[in-house]
Design brief:
By secondary structure, this protein is an alpha/beta fold. The chain is built from 13 helices and 12 strands. The protein has a 7-stranded mixed beta sheet with strand order 3-2-1-4-5-7-6, with helices on both faces. A 3-stranded mixed beta sheet has the order 10-11-12, with no helix packed on it. It has a two-stranded parallel sheet with strand order 8-9. α1 crosses α13 and α5 packs across α6.
Length: about 400
């Protein structure tokens, strides 16, 4: 196991995926009471994977990282996304919830071998481009600290000058980012997220983002060419291909895709009982009323990946958390259905109200998505450790 520290852990999606990948969290830090209570309830219920987790409910600005967590090899987390969310007020650095400076401080104080931070695709908005570049340069050179009285634009100028100068001294990281769609990694949901990964410059990481494992083309092929999708669900192949997919299906008939099919809502909900009939023995699967769609806010269809599960700043948004049934009626996802869409294990439970649970789930990183990225980082850090031992042994051979 590799020691890590998770910041802004929420209800634990990223932390669970990284734990499955082999990381051992020294602590998880989160200010939200409901999220902390939910993780602790799962610990108390005996959820085996997280029995060693220590949840610290605190404002991250009050944490002295070096004093408490020295030696961790990975720092991870999802700094609050509201400052950059397409559904928020788009205030970026002017939003008091912008916690990227604290993420940088954690890297500076702990000097981990690697870090991973996740955020919404709104971070890449053109209006945020200068500030996003500022975030990346701070993560690259965390020891170049903003001085009292300095604006962030002045600090950015200082970082740019350092970045374009000659040789570098001190702590710095090789940083990469990419906008990824979780559906391309088997998550039954269209969920675009910016992933930022850095490796300390003194280790030869030689890392890149994991290649996609799933594709839309493969889903179309399994539906409309091979028919395997419908057979898997015990259904008859529909008579006609939807007009929007006809050109792609024609192209695919003689070109079977190499990747696996995107996972759909129907795939994700397989095995769950109808919540209106027989859900009493299935935790978090209580029926919640008929939903009313309106223009621009309709539910997710069963045979496509879900729309992005969201948590709004002022409550749960409408269409993204609704489901269109085979008969055309719509209802809200149950908490367990939403958790399935976010790839939480069925025995990882949620203990608040429907609205609170949906908020936590909507803010989470899909567990499977986190594990895939975590696996690739873990493998690199393990290789680095083995190479270091080999170099040490070769330099200390007995004469």
């Amino acid at each position: 196991m590799i020691d890590s520290l998770e910041l802004f852990c929420g209800t634990g999606g990223l932390a669970l995926g990284l734990q499955q990948a082999g990381f051992s969290h020294r602590a998880l830090i989160e200010w939200d009471r409901h999220s902390c209570e939910n993780i602790n309830a799962n610990i108390g219920n005996g959820y085996s994977l997280i029995q060693d987790w220590k949840v610290i409910r605190s404002d991250v600005r009050d944490i002295q990282f070096k004093d408490r967590f020295s030696g961790v090899r990975l720092v991870s987390g999802g700094p609050p996304c509201q400052p950059f969310s397409l559904g928020g007020k788009h205030q970026a650095n002017n939003d008091k919830r912008d916690m990227f400076p604290q993420a940088v401080r954690a890297v500076r104080e702990l000097r981990p071998q690697a870090f991973i931070f996740e955020n919404v695709k709104g971070l890449l908005r053109r209006s945020f481009s200068s500030y996003f570049n500022y975030i990346l340069l701070q993560l690259r050179y965390p020891e170049i600290v903003i001085q009292d009285g300095m604006t962030w634009q002045e600090h950015l100028e200082q970082l740019e000058q350092y970045h374009t100068s000659g040789s570098k001294d001190g702590l710095y990281y090789n940083v990469v980012f990419r906008l990824l769609n979780a559906a391309d990694y088997g998550v039954p949901q269209i969920r675009h997220r910016v992933i930022i990964v850095g490796f300390r410059s003194d280790i030869d990481a030689n890392w890149s983002f994991p290649a996609p494992t799933h594709s839309k083309d493969a889903l179309l092929y399994s539906k409309w060419v091979s028919g395997e999708y419908w057979k898997k669900h015990g259904m008859t192949t529909p008579d006609t291909v939807p007009e929007k997919d006809r050109a792609a299906v024609g192209r695919l008939r003689n070109n079977p895709p190499a990747l696996l099919p995107w996972a759909t809502v129907r795939d994700a909900l397989r095995g769950l009982p109808d919540p209106t009939e027989n859900s009493v023995h299935f935790p978090n699967h209580e029926f919640r009323g008929i939903a009313k769609p309106y223009p621009g806010h309709s539910g997710s269809v069963l045979d496509e990946p879900s729309k992005t599960i969201k948590a709004g700043a002022h409550g749960v948004p409408g269409g993204e958390n609704m489901l269109v049934l085979d008969d055309g009626t719509e209802r809200y996802y149950t908490v367990r259905e939403s958790a399935r869409i976010q790839t939480f294990p069925d025995d990882y439970l949620f203990h608040g109200s429907w609205t609170e649970n949906m908020r936590q789930i909507g803010n989470a990183v899909p567990v499977q998505f986190a594990k895939i990225i975590g696996d690739s980082i873990y493998q690199q850090l393990e290789r680095v450790a083995v190479d270091g031992i080999k170099r040490w042994n070769s330099g200390h051979k007995a004469v």
